[in-house]
Write a structure and sequence with these properties.
With 138 residues, this protein is of the alpha+beta class. It has two domains: 1-96, no CATH class; 99-138. The protein is built from two helices and four strands, in the order ββββαα. It has a four-stranded antiparallel β-sheet, covered by helices on one side. The longest helix has 42 residues, at 56-97. The N and C termini lie far apart (66 Å).
């Protein structure tokens, strides 16, 4: 059974990936991966590894990967926020129905400060959006 392997493999790391060229045509038909570049998702930089040459199709594949990775990270980010809303609702239910006085004493101050900080930022951002919308209407 033959599996079609990609020409490039992206080993994800904090701000991007190490990019490897995948080769199967070695003397003993072993899989060989040679690092050819590093890519940075934040700024889109593609840096060849050492003296390696990157072909135009490889560069295009790396740019496509950067775009897809940015989209995936953005989707994860908004999903995390939606889960946070769920956790806040579950926390409210826990406080109302299950929390002991000792548990509440342990978390109340931190939760109140965190929620106050979040509320302050949300109100400011909402006001900024409302003002911007009014300015575009005029």
């Amino acid at each position: 059974m033959s599996i079609a392997l990609p020409e490039l493999f992206f080993r994800v790391k904090d701000n991007g990936a190490a990019v490897f060229r995948v080769t199967t045509e070695t003397r003993q038909n072993r899989l060989d991966m040679t690092q050819i570049a590093t890519v940075n998702v934040r700024n889109g930089d593609i840096k060849p590894q050492g003296t390696r040459e990157i072909t135009d199709p490889e560069r295009a594949a790396m740019e496509d990967w950067i775009g897809a990775r940015r989209a995936a990270l953005e989707a994860r980010n908004i999903d995390d926020i939606h889960r946070t809303v769920d956790f806040l609702n579950l926390t409210a239910q826990w406080v109302q129905s299950k929390a002991t006085d000792a548990q509440l004493e342990d978390v109340t101050d931190t939760l109140l400060l965190t929620m106050h900080d979040l509320r302050t930022i949300l109100v400011r951002k909402k006001a900024d959006r409302v003002m911007a919308a009014r300015e575009t209407e005029d």
